[in-house]
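Quick review question:
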């Protein structure tokens, strides 16, 4: 049985980003992504009853979609200039999507806000990376 169609390497993905800033809304295909981390989380709460130590139920009440992208500084800076922003935390209503080049798998993070923009410049480094944390109001898959 050949299961190659189920295995995706990092070169099989493309990541796109669009966001709105002072100069309007701009899309970009990110070409130099070091890493893209995402998750879907459910907050849970134990329900207790007076007179018992053990919880009687476990309920969930909210979903969150946090993530982190680490990209090349130059690629992000060109995008920020186009949007009219200095830091990505100044942009809003972003959409981030990750898709395989075959179109087999798509995740779209909607209404993203960027909560952190951090980078560093080090002597003799061959490249400069910027890490961006985001949170999304929702995610969709195709």
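Suggested answer, residue by residue:
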């Amino acid at each position: 049985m050949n299961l190659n169609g189920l295995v995706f390497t990092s070169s099989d993905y493309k990541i796109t980003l669009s966001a709105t800033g002072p100069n309007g809304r701009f899309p970009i295909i990110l070409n130099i992504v070091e890493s893209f981390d995402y998750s879907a989380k459910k907050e849970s709460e134990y329900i207790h009853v007076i007179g018992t130590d053990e919880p009687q139920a476990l309920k969930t009440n909210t979903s969150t979609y946090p993530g982190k992208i680490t990209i090349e500084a130059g690629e992000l800076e060109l995008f920020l200039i186009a949007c009219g922003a200095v830091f990505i935390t100044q942009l809003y209503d972003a959409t981030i999507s990750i898709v395989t080049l075959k179109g087999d798998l798509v995740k779209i993070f909607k209404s993203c806000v960027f909560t952190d923009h951090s980078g560093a410049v080090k002597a003799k480094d061959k490249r400069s990376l910027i890490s961006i944390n985001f949170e999304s109001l929702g995610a969709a898959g195709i």
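Why it works: The two ends are 26 Å apart (CA to CA). The chain has a mean pLDDT of 91.
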